[in-house]
């Protein structure tokens, strides 16, 4: 039988074998399904988790927004002229209010059912305002001013009655009071919403304007990131799936030999394994897709809280989900192709004898891998000159794929090293080389996980040390920054409110902070000038004493004091007075580790010496209150209410992770993934070498010897993967940052030690502990 009937018969046999052995393939299907579910969940999560910009969140269904000053004397004519060009126009008035916090509160007048601003307004309870003295407020405004439905709100010299609770579905952090259309007599700005592309209309010429246009590029970029990350994850899982299919092929070896003896061609035998891979991929894609969609329905409310805007549960990137499903099936088929090729080429007698296949030569793969790595590194080295994002993707993929091709050579090297070692390690390393298909796939997967973890940790550490701004948290959880809107002028009411708040919160310290006017720290990178957004405070004796710094330890020539280690090594800094023409080029930076690290804390101090050289005076910037314990939401709200009644405002901790913490999490996840790969790989190898272990038992090998086999197998794979992955990560980063090698001046030692030392040690201990009990008698393998 040949042709299509033979292929149908072989495919039916593959289905029967899958139904018989689906439990043995459960791990592979579970990993593929998990990858699909992660992509289906991550795509809408990443797209919607970033908070929409306040300006773009006001566009609603409009294509564009034009901002006019509130004192525009020709407003009606400007609106009519714009409407004649683009059609309907929504007019929204804005008036900013003092809120006593970092968040902006405003009064807003708009039509609730306007043609474009409808998506920016939703009623939660009560009703929309209609009369001159009616207002609807958001939940944040209600909480901040302690308002209820029916209450009167004294604000901006007016008495307004609260008739409803509203929200901006596009931006849940948008806090405002809503007035009826035309009921805002003195707006600070006016927004015009309309449909019109850039260049398709002429804005009013008699008023200063700002224009904003909607864009879908951000969502496409997020989808592209998810697809790239998903493809990398499927590549990683495909390596593990390839090891699983290799074990499956070995288990079916006698059946495949019998099929060949009955006249099946190499193509038919390959079809058996490829059909099995396709079935595994389809099942995993369907299960993973459904699981990911159900997970998204449950997680969407959390994403709404993170992104602070309402989300349509069915507005998913369906093209991305479909692509992920097809990639899953393709990954399973590709993973089954290499074992299928090896099984099809095996002689019938060897297959019937159930002997492992002879490992293929590794030099050809190693040469190809080295060439791919070189090409990938060259691409990464010229990314900045060519300014191509695709070159980044291509360089990373080529470097990673090249390292995969080197895995068989490194595994073969372990076998040669093991020939001159004690018996336990000799057997362990020999088995790794003997079952090279499984070992190489596992080593490649471990190397990918380690390379990603090490690369993220090293890159984030370098970015932290070579940036002007502190990345991460702004304040500690037990701190409040009370800032003064009118710099240098403190009203008696403000001073009393601050004292009362400090007493109420049992503050352990109230630290006054002063700042020079218009002083910025700049960095010159070629023709680009970057200015820090971090606060620059004066190094007063009170600040130094608060952080335990002896003034005598400050160097006489120091211009800046900071907790940022990297600033002292940056040679392209300039301490500049804005619009005054005075500066200190290459200021002397002294590192003070005891200073705080938060972006709003006094982490960057200018010395009195530098202040005198620049001829600057200082003003009172605010106070830093420290409390005995972390602030509760009620305490934070109390501080905001107290501040908004005076001339000040408050900031509290944002709970943002620092770059170091992100790097530590990446390292931990990479190590856990690598340990999972090791557990699976050691289990596969122990299953295939069961007969060898029975022989060891028969000749008197102790339980300790048998446990050492598993421990040495796991430990050697972990060590080789850790070294390979870290090397690949550093090569890629060195190529990308070849003009900024100071990025690597302070490597993340703890993260690298955890990878290079901790991972092999934990893998070795785990292999010893979970080796399991060995057979105590010789058993004959079943002839099935």
What characterizes the major β-sheet?
A: 10 strands, mixed
Number of strands: 22
Shape: globular
Gyration radius over CA: 33 Å
- Give the DSSP E fraction (strand runs of 2 or more residues): 5-15%
Question: Care to describe what's here?
Answer:
The two termini are 25 Å apart. Strands 1, 2, 3, 4, 5, 6, 7, 8, 9 and 10 form a ten-stranded mixed beta sheet that branches. The protein is α+β, with helices and mostly antiparallel strands.
Brief digest:
This protein has 784 residues and is α+β, with helices and mostly antiparallel strands.
Which tags fit this structure?
784 residues, alpha+beta, 10-stranded mixed beta sheet, 4-stranded antiparallel beta sheet, 22 helices, 52% helix, 15% strand
